[in-house]
Amino acid sequence: MPQDDENKSKKSNVSPKTGDSSWLTTPRLIRHIFDKFPLVTHPLNELPNRRPIERNKNTLHIFAREGEARRGAPSFNPSCLKWQTYLKLTGVDFVTVSSNNHASPTGSLPFMIPAASSAESTILDVVRPIPSHKIQEWAGKHCATSRTESDSIRYEAYLSLLDHRIRNAWLHTLYLSVPNFDAVARPLYISPATSAPPARLALSHSLQTAALEELTKASTSSVIDLSALYRESDNAFSALSELLGGDDWFFGEAEPGLFDAGVFAYTHLLCDENMGWKPDEERLGNSLREGKWKNLVEHERRVFDRCYR
User: Fold this and answer.
1) How many CA atoms lie within 13 A of 41 on its CB side?
2) pTM for the predicted model, two decimal places
3) What separation in angstroms does the CA of 148 have from each of 10, 137, 304?
4) What pLDDT digit, counting tens, does each position of 222-233 carry?
């Protein structure tokens, strides 16, 4: 502050002439500019309030087409669809909003914004974003029925099939298969994000590079063995089919849970003709559609009918 500078000059016995020539002195031209354009601190901007009707509703932000999000249709992203379906299975009342990673406090979707606690609440009261890894805990406090998910080693082993073997094949199918990238990923993730060709090119490169890095990390060599990649995903689906057997829900549960939602997130999107998969390039879903794992397809129908009919 100027007053502090003046006090320091007095204590150090610096002559006025020497002080004026100091390198700390602001040049007259710069002072003249700032006199015309003074620095002003404005109050914080309010958060956007484009959809005030949803301030009193739990709102799940997901990847989705705008019109489909308003209808509560399934997301086209496996992670988003998993949590969207889980919340529906638990009976939590919520709406979905089409969003993107830039809107997320963690940089990824989905995330939940709980409803305002009262009609008098402001929009600032609503914004307590819940990232995906905390949605299950939050839902446990707000669901219509109490339920617990298994934390056994057996459960974790089967969960790893979804999180690694099937997900890896999904990454290649969606992002690294050129026909599928152009037919599915580009219209779902690239075109809605920006209309600028250079930005679209950069985003495409970013998504494909990220997918390649993920698969390279999971591989024992720098070259991705596609035969092994899809063989492992097939084995994973076979194991899941055997686990389900003739039951309606996984692990013989009376009601579907998070694991059912996780399996559905992949089987639904792989079987959904509206995704626009190129048949010759979609090895991951061909076996499902051809009836190789009939009970998994039937499971997908049961979850869909319960949550999205």
Assistant:
1) 0
2) 0.79
3) 71, 10, 21
4) 788 999 999 999
